[in-house]
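Chapter review: from sequence to fold.
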Amino acid sequence: MNEVKFNQYFKFYLFILFFFACFFLYQKYNNLAEWTISEWLINYQGGFTRRGLIGEIVFQFSKIFSTTPRETILIFQIISYLVYFILLYKFIKNIKKNLLLIFAIFSPLFILYPIAEVEVLARKEIFLFISFLIVINIFEKPKLQNKHFLYFSIILSILTLIWEGIIFYLTYFVILLILRNNFILNKSFLIKLIFCLIPVFIILLFIVLFRLTENEVKIMCESINECYGAMTYLDNNLKSNISEVTSRFKFTYLLRYIFIFFIGFLPLLILIKNSTLNIKTKIITENALPLFILMFLPNIIFYFIAQDWGRWINISYSLSLLTYLHLYKNNFVKLSNKVINF
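The token string follows.
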């Protein structure tokens, strides 16, 4: 397909998805029991807690501009999707495409998924996607400098304060950094990488150690006059989350999601399987598939501790595709001619 024509179609596709996103977000705004809204309402008024950064910004913004928290959340959600789609378009438009790549981009597990599965729309992984695209943009610079490592650390730290689930997708960010260094794991690079990740793990430690008491949750709820959904789950421990998954598990669910995974991932898997790594340093394998398996493996943990399996597949696919597109765009992988000419 002609690149100009594809970009026109893709821009129109994103415009339609954005229109429906705004429509469904407005419906969520009017739903007084909407889980997504409750997740965005979590704030620091009762003390430090996981996922509280965005809610605190919402709370302060509402006070300054005399809006309700729900109105502020609606504005923030629409802006976040607009930023995501703009970054996505700018990233994808200059990539040389073949038929399989187009199928991978239009997979139902990618941009379309949150619109088709409205419950997922504007969950906090939207900040994960935006952050990943920003990091990709940073790593497309000709030469990495110390300031780029600093940006990397700040972005990951802010992201952890927004949604601690980032820990299971950290491999995608780290592998990007390692690839940019041509898999040269010298002392200087490892020290920089460790210093980048220390703030993230300190935040995660605080999240584990500091849980709101019943009275502190009450204070938080009173600050925004709402208390339901995700706000009432803040004191849930890992054991209770796992038991919730196991108690609802059915073998038919597993078969269904394996089928969804296979169909949705198929074009991308074919691309990865037929790609070789194009880096200066010799590593164990030249095929790109083991690298993507390595990035994906930590994601599996999420399926044992939280039941939103559709979300986890959507996140894994989105990050895997964006990673592949970044590698392909910057010649870190070579695609076989039989696939290019497919």
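Two observations follow directly from the output. The mean pLDDT is 89. The chain has 17 helices and two strands.
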